[in-house]
Amino acid sequence: xxxxxxxxxxxxxxxxxxxxxxxxxxxxxxxxxxxxxxxxxxxxxxxxxxxxxxxxxxxxxxxxxxx
Length: 67
Hints:
mainly alpha, single chain, 64% helix
């Protein structure tokens, strides 16, 4: 469940809306919202793209690292 909280926290810390991130990932808003709520598993390609967008490591994104 940690990855989903971190994805939401990173989005909020960067003053982005769910709609903006969904558009960046080229997906429907409802699909992205399900990722943030932990209702769907975040695919690897989306995790990689988000890590690059937020300039963090994949380890950080999945709470395997605090940096």
